[in-house]
């Protein structure tokens, strides 16, 4: 694969891509790519905040590159035409790297026709410069990369998220939080929400706060649940889930850890299905070879993507008033049974 710009930078411009998105002049189209889905969702929020004005009419639509090709032409035509009652239009195409050649050509043809009031946002896992659409976005300076964070990057985000919530956090507390929760940014954001409420506005989060509020994740039990789901063992998955919930594992955090496991398995599956060897997968994803071997058989990329879709829906449902255990078990069974 031809290299894309380093994640976190766009062609010809340095700095934090989220900061660039918030201050640069608006564009008619964007390509948001990378493996850090938490940051991509933040980027989408930044763009929506700038493009969609509260109190004014707007049209927002989301399509999936591997599922909605038949509706893409009509959506692009609508985007290029001013809405009857004014306002902004935003079309988000997720999994844009899965667009077939014909659909990709249609998007390429549409790019020059886009103007004020109509914005196209492409979301992809990779920006392969051998593909004409990705190459055009990169050449136009419209590509923004969000690579996975490492331990150092996660520590920086802990500080940033804490400040956004009006609190400070001691370095030792940051390390304690990472030791207990890992480096998944969605998980860390949820834990910092709780810590900020506990410490109070303007306070400093100390290691004692973290130890009293943040339980160490039961990683072995989560891996066990993931393995049951990968093997389509519905009964085993249900038992593992009930054990985790009975031991007090917060459902929202459990969803985040399952999501991290499934995203990791999806990355491996996508490369494996493309004919990449396990040794090369380990090098590309910066994983130990034994870990690649262990998760290599956890399912086809399409199945893992569907599982992640179920988990995204579950995350929303858990934040409603529905009973957590019932809705979580229904989602687990949906994943384990594979839609049967």
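-> sequence recovered:
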């Amino acid at each position: 694969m031809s290299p894309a710009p380093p994640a976190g930078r766009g062609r010809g411009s340095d700095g934090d891509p989220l900061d660039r998105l918030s201050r640069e002049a608006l564009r008619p189209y964007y390509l948001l790519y990378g493996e850090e889905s938490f940051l991509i969702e933040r980027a989408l929020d930044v763009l929506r905040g700038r493009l969609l004005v509260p109190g004014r009419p707007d049209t927002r639509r989301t399509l999936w590159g591997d599922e909605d090709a038949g509706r893409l032409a009509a959506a692009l035509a609508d985007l290029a035409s001013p809405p009857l009652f004014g306002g902004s239009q935003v079309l988000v195409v997720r999994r844009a790297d899965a667009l077939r050649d014909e659909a990709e050509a249609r998007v390429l043809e549409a790019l020059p026709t886009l103007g004020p009031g109509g914005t196209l946002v492409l979301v992809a896992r990779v920006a392969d410069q051998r593909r004409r659409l990705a190459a055009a976005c990169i050449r136009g300076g419209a590509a923004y990369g969000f690579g996975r964070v490492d331990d150092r990057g996660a520590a920086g985000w802990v500080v940033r998220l804490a400040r956004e919530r009006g609190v400070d956090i001691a370095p030792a507390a940051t390390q304690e939080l990472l030791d207990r929760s890992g480096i998944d940014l969605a998980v860390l954001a949820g834990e910092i929400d709780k810590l900020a409420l506990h410490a109070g506005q303007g306070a400093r989060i100390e290691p004692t706060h973290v130890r009293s509020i943040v339980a160490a994740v039961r990683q072995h039990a989560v891996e066990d649940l993931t393995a049951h789901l990968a093997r389509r063992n519905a009964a085993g998955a249900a038992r593992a889930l009930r054990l985790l919930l009975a031991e007090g594992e917060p459902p929202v955090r459990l969803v985040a850890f399952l999501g991290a496991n499934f995203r990791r398995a999806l990355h491996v599956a996508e490369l494996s299905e493309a004919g990449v060897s396990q040794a090369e997968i380990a090098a590309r994803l910066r994983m130990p070879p034994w870990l690649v071997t262990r998760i290599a058989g956890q399912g086809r990329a399409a199945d893992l993507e569907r599982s992640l879709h179920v988990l995204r829906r579950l995350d929303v449902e858990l934040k409603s008033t529905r009973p957590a255990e019932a809705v979580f078990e229904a989602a687990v069974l949906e994943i384990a049974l594979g839609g049967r």
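The CA atoms of residues 280 and 286 lie 10 Å apart.
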